[in-house]
Amino acid sequence: MNRDDKKDLVARMHTEFGESTVCIVTHYQGLTVAQMEALRGKVREVGARFRVTKNRLTRLALEGTEFEGLSDLFTGPTAIATSADPVAAAKACADFAKTNDKLVILGGAMQGRVLDADGVQALAKMPSLDELRGKLVGLLTTPAQRVASVTQAPAGQLARVLNAYAESQGEAA
């Protein structure tokens, strides 16, 4: 890789860090190519990115971003997962690490706050942004449905009472 390519890579990674709300740092030593592809696919499914990085270039790309505190984690064979959704990348990496002990989560950062491996695991247990949106929509529609049923119930009861009264008057005549 020549000097210009390295500058371009650092610039692209710096932009990626600027667009992301979370960055997870992992060691991947011992994973096969097939396992790496499976991990990349799992991360891609949730809208995140996973890439193997050159430590020195990554440290340069981290400068001036909210993930600058992660620089110390970049030793050995490292890979990063980034995403705009604060939970997606952590959840995908943690799920893969459960079934494959060769992926080791070193730590991460979310919106400027550095997390250790336990912090990343705690983040992975939180519901994703899409799950939270679904719950919020459910909470918002439930009261509206209840209000509609409550307002319709008295009218229906009144109609049934009037109908019963009319039927009883018809029988009396």
UniProtKB/TrEMBL annotation:
Function summary: Forms part of the ribosomal stalk, playing a central role in the interaction of the ribosome with GTP-bound translation factors.
Gene3D superfamilies (alphabetical): 3.30.70.1730, 6.10.250.290
Keyword line: Ribonucleoprotein, Ribosomal protein, RNA-binding, rRNA-binding
Protein name as catalogued: Large ribosomal subunit protein uL10
Family designation: Belongs to the universal ribosomal protein uL10 family.
Molecular-function annotations in GO: large ribosomal subunit rRNA binding; structural constituent of ribosome
A single cellular component GO annotation: large ribosomal subunit
GO biological process, one term: translation
Biological source species: Rhodospira trueperi
Assembly mode: Part of the ribosomal stalk of the 50S ribosomal subunit. The N-terminus interacts with L11 and the large rRNA to form the base of the stalk. The C-terminus forms an elongated spine to which L12 dimers bind in a sequential fashion forming a multimeric L10(L12)X complex.
InterPro entries from the UniProt entry: Ribosomal_uL10, Ribosomal_uL10-like_sf, Ribosomal_uL10_bac, Ribosomal_uL10_bac_type, Ribosomal_uL10_CS_bac
PANTHER family attached to this UniProt entry: 39S RIBOSOMAL PROTEIN L10, MITOCHONDRIAL
Keyword DNA-binding: no
